[in-house]
Write a structure and sequence with these properties.
Layout (H helix, E strand, L loop, with lengths): L3 H24 L6 H7 L4 H12 L3 H19 L4 H7 L5 H12 L3 H8 L8 H8 L11 H4 L1
Helix pairs in contact: 1-4, 2-3, 4-7
């Protein structure tokens, strides 16, 4: 049986984690780092990272990058921005890091995704397009044998 203060602390931590997640969702294009997020949530960076992973399945930085890649996918599908413009629009400061993370999560580099997907969701309601194109870290892109050759 858990004590009442421990339960209250746990609920307080969950509320803080929800606020951190909501801030990442809202401010994904801004420069965010785990230390600043933790400071604003009145937690240590290590505690925030551990608790965030327990609550949401991935650490805060990985969640942030997933949000950025998700938004980048939508911008690339539109087709009116270059990969570099998309990289900076979603808050990444390094094109190399952006391309690497994008390829890890989506399975193809951003330039290839842009070419392949430019019209894939045309006419599809945005809520459906978002769901079917969302990158999911726990199911990272599989590399086929033909891609390795």
């Amino acid at each position: 049986m858990t004590s009442r203060p421990a339960t209250e602390d746990h609920l307080r931590d969950l509320a803080r984690l929800r606020r951190v997640r909501d801030r990442i969702d809202r401010e994904y294009a801004q420069p965010l780092d785990v230390e600043a997020l933790a400071r604003d949530a009145h937690m240590s960076a290590g505690h925030l990272s551990r608790q965030f992973r327990l609550a949401y399945g991935e650490p805060p930085y990985a969640y942030l990058m997933t949000r950025r890649i998700e938004r980048a996918m939508a911008l690339l599908r539109r087709g009116d921005l270059s990969v570099t413009e998309v990289c900076f629009a979603v808050g990444c400061s390094s094109l190399g890091t952006f391309s690497t993370r994008f390829t890890e999560l989506v399975g193809v580099p951003p330039s290839v995704y842009r070419e392949q997907q430019a019209r894939a969701t045309e006419g599809m309601p945005s809520c459906v397009a978002k769901q079917v194109t969302r990158p999911i870290r726990n199911r990272e892109a599989q590399v086929s044998a033909s891609q390795l050759a």
